[in-house]
Amino acid sequence: MSGSSRRPTLSTVAQRCGYSVNTVSRALRGDSRLPQSTIQKIREAANEVGYIPNRLAASLRSSESHVVAIIIEDIENPHYSHLMARIELELQARGYNVIILCNNRSLTTEKELAALAVSYSVSGVLLFPQDSVGTADGNTSAVQLLQANHIPVVIVDRAIQQQDIDCVRVDDEAGGYLAGKTLAQLGHQKYLYLAGPQNNTSQPLRQKGFLRAVDEFVSSDQKSVRIIESTVSCQALHEGRITRLLTPLSYSALVCFNDEVAYDCMQALQEEGYQIPQDLSICGFDSIGSDIRFLPRLSSIAHTKGYSIAEYAVKALMNRIEHPAAARQDIVLPVSYYDGGTCAEPVRLHRHPSAV
C-alpha cells in the first residue's frame, strides 16, 4: 500500500511512464494524433497507479459533466426501481452516467437534493416530485432552484401545475377511466377504491377517471362506490390489519391506486382464504408484473406497449439540454388494460371462505 494519502494524478501517471503531463492527458482522452502504442503504454501506467479521472474538475472546464441526476421519492416501490433501471440504460446509450438521489418523501430533502445536483454540475435532472411541484408558502421549490441555476429538468410520472417545465407522464385520468370501464363491462356494480396520497397529483386524476366510468356504465340505482383514503389504508397495511379494513366483502371489485397496494391487499385476502377473482376482482395501476416476472399475475393499467416512460423522459431531457430555449413539452402517454387474470365477472358477492 502506498504511504501517500493523495489520490493518483496525471503527474503520478507521467512519472510512472516517462511522458509529459500534457501527453498523458491527451492519451487518456484518446487523442488520435498520438501513436496507438503510446496511448496503450500510458493507459497501462494509469491502471497500474490506480489513476481515476476527476470528472467534476473536467466538467467545470468543459461546462458539461455528462451526468444526469434522478431525484426520486421512493426507491422501494418496484415500479420506480424498474423505471430507474430503464432510464439508466437509455442514458448510458447516449453517453451519460447517472446518480440517484432519494428524498424519502420529504419536500425539504427534495430541495436539498436539488442543491446537491447543482453542486455536482450535472448536465440535467429527471425529477419524480412528491407533490405538484409548487410550494404553497411561496418558498423556493426544487424545480425553481434547478431552473435558477440553469440545470435542465424534466418532471417524470406526475402531472404538474407550472407551465414552464417539461413533463412526461401517463394519462392518469384515462387510466382510471379504463379500470372503471373494464370492471363495469364485466358486470361489477359495487366497488372499493383505495386512493393514493393526496399530494400525489396522479391520485385525483385516476380517481376522477374511475368515478366517471362508473357513472357512465353503471346505473345510479345499482352502483355503490366506497373510497378509502391512503392515510387509512397505509396505516392498516403498516399495522397488519388490512384484511379487517377490506372485509366483509360488501363489494365485488377492488381498485387500487397502484400495484404495490394491490399486491399487498391480494396477499392479505388470499391468506384469509379468499380466491381472486372468484370472490373479488382486483385491479392495480403500473403493471409491474409485466416486467418483474417473479411477481404473481395482476390485472392492471399502464402505459401502452411501445410508449416507454423511460425512453420519452430521456428524449425530453436530451432535447432540453441541446435546445434550452425550446418550447415546453407536456408528453402524455396512452394507457392500456393488461389482463393478469384478477378481474372477472362478479359471481360470489358477500361470500366468505368459511362458507365453503
UniProtKB/TrEMBL annotation:
Residues 8-62 form the HTH lacI-type domain. Pfam families: LacI, Peripla_BP_1. One of its GO terms (molecular function) is DNA-binding transcription factor activity. The keyword Transcription applies. InterPro entries: HTH_LacI, Lambda_DNA-bd_dom_sf, Peripla_BP/Lac1_sug-bd_dom, Peripla_BP_I. Keywords: DNA-binding, Repressor, Transcription, Transcription regulation. This is LacI family transcriptional regulator. The lineage of its organism: Bacteria, Bacillati, Bacillota, Clostridia, Lachnospirales.
